[in-house]
Amino acid sequence: MTTGNPADRLDSWKEIASYLRRDVRTVQRWEKKEGLPVYRHLHDKLGSIYAYRNELTEWFNGRQQSGAAGIATEQLEGQAEKIKLAVLPFGNLSGDREDAYFSDGLTEEMITQVTRLQASGLAVIARTTAEHYDSSSKSLDQMKKDLGVGYVLEGKVRRGGNRVRITAQLIQLKDQTQVWAETYERDLSDVLSVQADIAQAIAREINLALNLSESVRLSGLKKELGRVQPAAYDAYLKGRYNLHQMTPSAINKSIEDFERAIQADESYAPAHAGLASAYALLAIAPFDLLAPHEAMPKAEKAARKALELDNSFAEAHTALALVNHHYHWNWREAEAGYERAIELNPDHADTHLWYSWMLLALGRRDAAFDEIEQTMSIVQETDPHRLVTVHTTRAAAYYFGREYQRAVEECEKAQQLDPGYFMLHFIAGRAYMRLNEHAKAIAHLKQARSETGEMPLMDAALGLAYAVSGKMAETLKLAETFQKAAKKRYIPPTYFGMLFAGLGDKDKAMMWLEKAFEERADGLTWLNVEPMLDEVRSDPRFQSLIGRIGLTS
After folding, report:
1. Nearest residue to 481 (alpha-carbon basis) of 469, 471, 491, 468
2. Cis bond leading into 286, ω under 30°?
3. Buried/exposed 223-250: b ≥16 CB within 10 Å, e otherwise
4. What's the pLDDT score for residue 261?
5. How many alpha carbons fall within 13 Å on the CB side of residue 121?
6. 142-199, pLDDT tens digit by residue?
7. Alpha helix locations (H) across 90-190?
8. Distance of CA 425 to the CA centre of its chain
9. Can you give the pLDDT at residue 67?
10. Could you tell me the end-to-end alpha-carbon distance of the chain, in angstroms, rounded to an integer?
């Protein structure tokens, strides 16, 4: 163990990368291939890597002397930490509660604009965490204490027809002083130019040096390029509001909103990107509401249109990566898409997690764990309310690695953060099944089902748990429910295949898995790592299926 000064310690990949003024992937590569001095705690806690500034400086000096390109030592000494900024939910002054979607959507759009200013020097608190605070002095003090936030953007919006009045102020939390404030009254068609004005004001006040591409983008938004049809923007904000709810019915409603936005202004890239995200989400677990053949081509078309209009739109790159990952099984293009999205928006936790799930499916566990650890670092810094999701993803990684007890322990950590999160109960239930602790498995899966209502993913897992515990009557009841539900909505054949595989019926399992292959159903990406399929893994038909999907055996 090193004897470095704890006060000189950097406790995450993000802090190490910021100190060296490089991205996280670069410093992780340096550790693996060039001996960057990074340490790991001898326990299972996620994000348990650390390094010392003096050792990094000494290593970097040696690297420079050997001919490697880098930055000067004096640039490393005294390296400032990232500036943390939170955008509080914009207040709705219209007096109409039905207009809540407008202020809500405007808040999200403002977070997006600020996030794009300078990823290396600015950490923007995620909406899901910022919305737990308000503009009161007590709440701002708590935010500074909880998250280390330095600045807060507070805003209010009043809308009347196609006119909008936006008041914004930037508050420095060190002494809760207002460092900038402005009121804008514009046509709704000019709302993007207002967002650009606010973003540039923030950059100016907190001394962020914008790169050339970002300066050009913001300048474009302030000119004719930033004009948007009011009807398109209004429908788009309704779509964002519904998509944010993350329920099947709300996501379905967001599709209608995004399509109305596109009808009003076909050149509005964000609406195409939102439509792509919505269609892609409804065709994959846990929603599985639309058949892949119905949803994924629409998602792909919308994503490509968004990128044609604005290639710097991270959300569109992520949506296209989801299509290549879950539908085309084009692993190379999917990986390139995820990496490009991360390059454009390094702090977007969902993209990192989707990328880690793909890496797990491909059996690249070390890379997947690195991605999960990086995501943990991001959410610890900007979105602590998402910690439960990252712990659950790590639990899934242990489950796929047949480390069932570790998966259960990780779910227990997640349960301390949010006992109602359905996916942690889903993972714990399957892990307990493999540990032959059937009562615990059933209890967890029943809770997951109660949190979500009837959802094919949960029903299939619970049906299998009943079956392996000898409660065949309960399994048959769920099977009947499945059959009735299949007449009204799409159910991926993959789930039937996994159910019969777990019951030891190889022929029926392969019949359903082949049907899933024909439909390009979600869940097939897990064939090579899913423990529930171990009973049919040696079957030549199964190995043939893996090869056709392009998974390594």
Report:
1. 491
2. yes
3. eeebbbbbbbbbbbbbbbbbbbeeebee
4. 97
5. 12
6. 999 999 999 999 999 998 888 899 999 999 999 899 999 999 998 988 888 888 889 8
7. 100-115, 127-130, 137-147
8. 20
9. 40
10. 39
